[in-house]
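User: Could you go from structure to sequence for me? I need the amino acid at each position, not a summary. Structure tokens:
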């Protein structure tokens, strides 16, 4: 993966054992249906902290909120670095009350794709491509785009995560990202009205969410409409789009059909070349057990 700061050490019995930089964490993983390869007692000996939900240790719980139990001394916040050739950025890790730690390591192939696409489009247009990252969280994808020389707009509805993303930009030695705290759908509709176009759009929408003014986001009800709006602000001449989905059990085929239909790709493009790829993002543990974590669609033209 080109990432010395992250390893999935083992998985099984509804948990995963991961190393993020200096620390080893045990987190719930409802998809790890198999047996652990390293004995459970060894997991507890290795880990600095373990997150449990109301479901308890090793249970197939669906809840995300819970508690961290410290097993060894560790900092509440610490840095990790992603490096792949000249793509480099740093992220601050933090123990949140929702088992998340500020980064989704399985997304690394998306960061590599974004970086390469920005470079390609930049060369083609002879200027900085405009990239919009929607549901952008702590900003790894924004940093990948910025690192490649894009003019980046980072949007999330939660002020605290935007502040976190800003810190990550500064820690990475990058600058000049445009920060927007807004409802994603509302912003896209406004950009469409203004006639603004982007050469790159990145989307990682959750199953449920809220805009800052209480706007309700519900993936199954709004995703198709949302994508159709996004299509109106994508530069049809030269651009890339990444859609990542990790909830509702949606498949990669479903995600591809959604992009094809909402973007009208098959009927509108009249022989113009575009490449649409789709698949699953996964992490392999040290014992080659592959853990699927999300699905993606990538459009390149
Ligand atoms: C799981 S995160 C995406 C992860 C991110 N792409 C990454 O790889 O680091 C989903 C994000 O969507 C944001 N969100 C939820 N509802 C929203 C809305 N209506 N408009 C904009 N952002 C929203 C949340 O604050 C959260 O940061």
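Assistant: Here is the amino acid at each position, in order:
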């Amino acid at each position: 993966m080109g990432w010395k700061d992250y390893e999935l050490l083992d998985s099984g019995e509804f948990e995963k054992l991961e190393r993020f930089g200096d620390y080893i964490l045990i987190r719930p993983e409802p998809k790890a249906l198999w047996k652990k390869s390293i004995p459970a007692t060894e997991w507890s000996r290795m880990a600095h902290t373990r997150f449990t939900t109301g479901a308890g240790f090793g249970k197939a719980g669906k809840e995300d909120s819970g508690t961290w139990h410290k097993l060894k001394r560790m900092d509440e916040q610490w840095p990790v670095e992603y490096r792949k050739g000249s793509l480099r950025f740093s992220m601050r890790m933090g123990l949140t009350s929702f088992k998340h730690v500020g980064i989704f390591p399985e997304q690394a192939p998306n960061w590599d794709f974004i970086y390469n696409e920005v470079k390609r489009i930049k060369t083609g247009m002879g200027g900085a491509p405009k990239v919009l990252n929607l549901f952008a969280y702590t900003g790894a994808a924004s940093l990948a785009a910025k690192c490649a020389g894009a003019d980046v707009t980072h949007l999330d509805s939660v002020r605290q995560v935007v502040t976190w993303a800003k810190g990550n930009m500064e820690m990475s030695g990058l600058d000049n990202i445009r920060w927007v705290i807004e409802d994603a759908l509302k912003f896209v509709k406004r950009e469409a009205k203004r006639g603004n176009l982007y050469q790159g759009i990145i989307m990682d929408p959750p199953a449920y969410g809220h805009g800052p003014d209480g706007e309700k986001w519900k993936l199954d009800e709004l995703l198709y409409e949302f994508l159709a709006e996004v299509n109106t602000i994508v530069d049809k001449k030269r651009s890339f789009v990444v859609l990542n989905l990790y909830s509702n059990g949606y498949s990669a085929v479903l995600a591809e059909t959604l992009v094809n239909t909402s973007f009208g790709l098959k009927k509108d493009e009249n022989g113009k070349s575009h490449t649409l790829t789709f698949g699953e993002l996964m992490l392999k543990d040290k014992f080659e057990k592959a853990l699927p974590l999300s699905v993606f669609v990538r459009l390149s033209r």
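One structural detail worth keeping in mind: Residues 34 and 239 are 41 Å apart (CA to CA).
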